[in-house]
Write a structure and sequence with these properties.
Layout: E1 42-45, E2 48-50, E3 58-59, E4 61-65, E5 68-73, H1 75-78, E6 87-90, E7 95-98, E8 100-105, H2 107-115, E9 117-118, H3 125-138, E10 145-150, E11 162-163, E12 166-167, H4 170-175, E13 181-185, E14 190-193, H5 195-200, H6 208-212, E15 219-223, E16 229-235, H7 239-242, H8 250-266, E17 269-277, H9 279-290, E18 297-303, H10 307-316, E19 327-335, H11 365-378, E20 381-386, H12 389-405, E21 415-418, H13 427-433, E22 436-438, H14 441-455, H15 457-463, H16 467-472, H17 490-499, H18 519-525, H19 528-532, E23 551-554, E24 571-576, E25 579-583
Parallel strand pairs: 1-6, 2-7, 8-17, 9-10, 10-13, 17-18, 18-19, 19-20, 20-21, 21-22
Antiparallel strand pairs: 1-4, 2-3, 4-5, 7-23, 11-12, 13-14, 14-16, 15-16, 23-24, 24-25
Helix pairs in contact: 2-8, 11-12, 14-15, 14-17
Length: 587
């Protein structure tokens, strides 16, 4: 049991949340405030509270004042801090942890995924076509139809004509002749367009120009044997279609933000690492913070696609929100290869299921080195997307070169986002260089059944989703979902971390079971490790006196229940800054 410690503070409360989502009450029999101590604003009692501190203490009760944790320990010890105005929540044996932190996702993408067609649960191309057909019936002629989440490797494709593993656009185009359609792959690294969208983009009708000149470096327009575009745009070729899609309206943007905040709260998420944001979205986040609409602690990565934006921020320096801890901008996101599902991940050896194809280098490695150096000299963390083994190696090489050139740079915490498939020789380099692998355990659960077709057994076993090997090297793993690539549900990612199974519970022993995390490790990957990955471990990530009062409450003890019951665990309550922002009314 953790030692009870008193903590007094002069921190200014944020007073950002004015919600009455739960009926909080004062338990008079528990009220025995010591007149010599300042009463808490909020107390949680009768819980199993996992602190995720250095010694993984488990406590019963915690007290909050002005948005900070002031006391913790037993019910009896914390009772001294309950006064007449203290709000007391009786957890009645339920479990609480530090507020969960999404370690790699796309915040506005989460919101827009709820506004547009959500295709994550589609199980066949025909089902996708039916959803678009329904949307087209409700749309005005010429109105764009957008969606995201399809993944051809998870479909029943037995009746489909496939080219390079993808369907062709004809069925889609037939049900949407008057509306341009663009549907992003679950990974975000490819997209499917109908004929109308390709006409607007100049790819159709087929011409000599469309065959020879309309190409994008670092991308691919999928074509059949006659040169006809199939409707699939891989990696940077997506620009050809995306540039024609109407800009988002302020009303749509505001709605998407609200939907994203609500989705985070429903899933116990109190912090979010936003992996790649442009200048307009940054300004929108700033305005939203001033209007007290953020609701989730955002750690924002500047998009590396906009070099002018980076140069502006290098001159300006990091923006570290040390008062409200709601909006910090101190890192750069570089997209260096594609995804495994679209065969865009950059590999050292060819794809097992596509001879002669090695994926895509979507960003020059010279720019990675330049950005690493400028990050070190201007106080910015660099976070590079790398899924394939070659991309990971090339980035580690550039990081190492930059570290050697600027040995005086300390506590850099450079990251590789995904680190999904590694060459065995590169696994120990993460710990040696202090590079953080920001991985998404749910990708193993979703992708492993078909990823073996891309890489073959040897490469899968030796270097894919190797959490244990990376931790043994000394690396600190940050977990997450890459939402909207996967649903934001942290319980699913926790389950994948400790079981190495699909969400259907297969295989019985898990894929490569030697790479499992323990439950303590999985919890920390979503709390303290994630806070560390954002330089916020002194503010959040564990339940300790002085830290921000962010908590996630569950209806089951996911640290103790049988593995088969983990996925039945529900978020019961989410608390941000000492305010209850979500209560599950169904429990």
């Amino acid at each position: 049991m953790a030692k009870l410690t008193e903590y007094s503070t002069n921190y200014k409360p944020m007073n950002l949340y004015r919600f009455s989502l739960i009926s909080l009450f004062t338990i008079s029999v528990f009220c025995s405030c010591n007149p010599s101590v300042e009463p808490a604003d909020l107390v949680l009692i009768n819980g199993t509270i996992y602190t995720a501190n250095k010694t993984n203490d488990v406590i019963q009760s915690v007290g909050v004042k002005d948005g900070r944790i002031t006391v913790l320990g037993t019910n009896e010890a914390v009772s001294e801090y309950v006064g007449k105005t203290t709000k007391v929540i009786d957890l009645n044996g339920m479990v609480a942890t530090p507020g969960l932190i999404e370690g790699h996702g796309h915040f506005m993408g989460l919101g827009f995924n709820e506004l547009n067609l959500d295709l994550l649960d589609v199980t066949s191309y025909d089902e996708l076509v039916k959803r678009v057909e329904a949307a087209a019936r409700d749309a005005e002629p010429g109105e764009w139809i957008r969606g995201r989440g399809w993944h051809q490797s998870k479909w029943d494709n037995s009746n489909e004509e496939m080219i390079n593993g993808f369907p062709t656009h004809e069925k889609l185009s037939a049900v949407s002749p008057d509306n341009p359609v663009y549907l992003s792959h679950a990974s975000g690294h490819a997209g499917m367009a109908n004929a109308k969208a390709m006409e607007i983009s100049g790819v159709l009708p087929l011409s000599t120009e469309s065959l020879s000149e309309i190409e994008v470096e670092g991308g691919e327009i999928m074509r059949d044997e006659l040169g006809n575009p199939t409707g699939i745009f891989n990696e940077r070729a997506q620009i050809l279609v995306a540039k024609n899609i109407p800009e988002i309206t302020p009303q749509q943007q505001a709605k998407a933000l609200d939907l994203a905040v609500q989705a985070c709260w429903r899933n116990g998420i109190t912090g979010f690492h936003d992996a790649g944001v442009d200048r307009k979205t940054i300004e929108f986040f700033k305005a939203s913070k001033e209007q007290e609409k953020l609701g989730v602690r955002l750690y924002v990565m500047l998009t590396g696609w906009d070099k002018e934006l980076l140069e502006e921020w290098y001159k300006r320096g990091p923006q570290i929100d040390s008062i409200d801890n709601l909006l910090t901008i101190r890192s750069v996101k570089l997209n260096c290869d594609g995804a495994l599902g679209s065969r865009g991940a950059w590999l050292l050896e060819e794809y097992t299921d596509r001879a002669g194809h090695f994926g895509h280098e979507t960003l020059p490695m010279d720019f990675v080195l330049e950005t690493a150096k400028k990050g070190l000299t201007n106080g910015f963390q660099v976070c590079a997307h790398a899924i394939g083994d070659r991309a990971n190696r090339e980035i580690l090489d550039r990081y190492e070169t930059a570290f050697n050139e600027f040995p005086e740079a300390e506590d850099t915490r450079f990251r590789i986002e995904h680190a999904q498939h590694l060459h065995p020789d590169d696994i120990p380099r993460f710990g040696e260089l202090g590079v953080i692998p920001a991985m998404q355990a749910i990708h193993m659960s979703s992708d492993r059944p078909w990823a073996i077709d891309r890489l073959g057994e040897q490469r899968i076993v030796e270097g894919a989703y190797v959490w244990r090997s990376l931790m043994d090297s000394g690396a600190i793993i940050v977990n997450g979902t890459d939402v909207p690539v996967e649903p934001i549900n942290p319980i699913a990612s926790f389950y994948a971390s400790v079981s190495r199974k699909t969400l259907k519970g297969t295989p019985e022993d898990g894929y490569e079971p030697g790479q499992k995390m323990t439950r303590d490790e999985a919890l920390k990957s979503y709390t303290w490790n994630a806070a560390y990955g954002a330089f916020m471990e002194n503010e959040t990530g564990s339940i300790e006196v002085g830290k921000l009062a962010d908590f996630t409450v569950y209806n089951k003890d996911l640290m103790q229940v049988p593995e088969s019951e983990i996925l039945d665990t529900k978020i019961a309550m989410t608390i941000v800054n000492g305010n209850v922002v979500y209560e599950n009314s169904e429990l």
